[in-house]
Amino acid sequence: MYFQSLEKLINLGDGYRRQFRIDHLSLLLVQDEGERYLFESHCPHREHPLDNAAIIGGMLECPLHRYRFDLGSGELLQATELPCRGLRVYSLVYEGNEVGVMLPA
């Protein structure tokens, strides 16, 4: 496993959103109400980008079909068509003044 830095802590604040491409992964880092989350950047239902998804009360809502996922666990909370798997979430790791993720070598 290795640490992949994503952002300096000083750059984070509520409303922050940034997509990262690392190897085969496409990740989205967001901060909402003081909490930071890292998850896959496309909806598992139809692969729609989530960079403009609404965040409502701890839920992420896909703008295409309004699927809702729990921000912390990625659990699918609401499906408007056929159910899909949950959103993949990743644990954030803090090193010094940076936030990142541990990835397999």
From TrEMBL:
InterPro entries recorded: Rieske_2Fe-2S, Rieske_2Fe-2S_sf
Domain Rieske: 1-101
Taxonomic lineage from the root: Bacteria, Pseudomonadati, Pseudomonadota, Gammaproteobacteria, Cellvibrionales
Protein name, as recorded: Rieske (2Fe-2S) protein
Organism: Kineobactrum sediminis
GO molecular function: 2 iron, 2 sulfur cluster binding; metal ion binding
Keywords of this entry: 2Fe-2S, Iron, Iron-sulfur, Metal-binding
